[in-house]
């Protein structure tokens, strides 16, 4: 396996799981992507940014990709010039670890529409945001502040075609310059292994 490289710049190193409150400045970071480039949150200043914690072996994540819900949300984001960063917090010895080639193959297979797929091998980015599960989401607003954190929707494992779309509603609020009506929800899924 090819190592994906160090995942975090000096800004996001954290040894403990933190919590970022909605409205607080989002922790900045720099991480290597599957495209071989480094991506920094600062690169996207002034834009809405979605951080999607993902894991290719998590069945909770898999169902969102299999039923097309994740790709539909990604296409919505792309159509509104929203940056989408998928982040895999899996070290080489953990389930869900992907090489850059593996990540590119996964994006092609799932037809993901993302700005970049990032590697968080030491868990520093996830710890700085307090990410605990996959899938889980954080939205950074145009001012660099955390505007939303939580689940994609209220469908825990299967999508019955009904229910509440938390991320879609949050993005819609932010696109028109409103505050997110429900800025925090409880994500359900696979535990991130630190």
Architecture overview:
This protein is α/β, with parallel strands linked by helices and 194 residues long. Helix content is 24%, strand content 19%. It has five helices and nine strands. The longest helix is centred in the middle third of the chain and has 11 residues. The chain starts with 29 loop residues before the first strand and ends with a strand. The N terminus is likely disordered.
Multimeric status of the protein: single chain
CA radius of gyration = 15 Å
Could you give the order of strands across the largest sheet? 5-4-3-7-8
User: Which percent range fits the helix content?
Assistant: 10-25%
Uncertain runs: 1-14
List the helices and strands and how they pair.
Elements (H helix, E strand, L loop, with lengths): L29 E3 L5 E3 L8 E6 L4 H8 L2 H11 L3 E6 L11 H11 L5 E4 L4 H6 L3 E2 L1 E5 L5 E5 L15 H10 L14 E2 L3
């Amino acid at each position: 396996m090819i190592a994906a490289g160090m995942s975090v710049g000096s800004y996001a190193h954290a040894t403990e799981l933190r919590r970022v409150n909605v409205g607080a400045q989002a922790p900045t970071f720099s991480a290597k992507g599957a495209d071989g480039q480094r991506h920094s949150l600062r690169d996207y200043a002034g834009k809405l940014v979605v951080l999607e914690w993902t894991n290719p072996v998590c069945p909770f994540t898999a169902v969102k990709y299999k039923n097309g819900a994740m790709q539909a949300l990604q296409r919505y984001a792309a159509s509104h010039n929203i940056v989408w960063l998928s982040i895999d917090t899996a070290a080489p010895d953990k389930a869900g670890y992907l090489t850059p080639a593996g990540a590119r193959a996964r994006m092609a297979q799932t037809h993901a529409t993302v700005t970049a797929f990032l590697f968080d091998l030491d868990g520093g980015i996830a710890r700085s945001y307090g990410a605990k599960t996959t899938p889980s989401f954080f939205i950074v607003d145009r001012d660099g502040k955390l505007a939303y954190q939580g689940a994609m929707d209220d469908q825990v494992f299967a999508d019955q075609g009904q229910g509440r779309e938390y991320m879609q509603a949050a993005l819609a609020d932010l696109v028109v310059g409103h505050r997110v009506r429900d800025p925090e929800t409880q994500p359900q899924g696979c535990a991130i292994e630190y």
